[in-house]
Design brief:
The protein has 64 residues and is of the alpha+beta class. 22% of the residues lie in helices and 31% in strands. The protein has a two-stranded antiparallel ribbon. The model has no long low-confidence stretch (mean pLDDT 95).
Length: 64
């Protein structure tokens, strides 16, 4: 029987590892190898953006 617990996920840019975003999300506990916690974290991140909890501060072109 599962309960839910908060987990923390840190997203990093593969090219620029110093850039990171950390979120907390709820997922089944105890940890089960059959559950894709990465997918739950990504879905939670998308929901936070969609709901306006994570916002874009600025968009600008990069000089190349």
């Amino acid at each position: 029987m599962y309960s839910h617990k908060y987990f923390r996920a840190t997203f990093v840019d593969a090219a620029v590892p110093d850039m990171q975003i950390t979120i907390e999300f709820e997922a089944p506990y105890p940890v089960d190898e059959g559950i894709n916690y990465s997918k739950i974290a990504v879905d939670s991140f998308k929901a936070l953006v969609r709901e306006g909890h994570i916002k874009i501060r600025n968009i600008e072109p990069i000089e190349t």
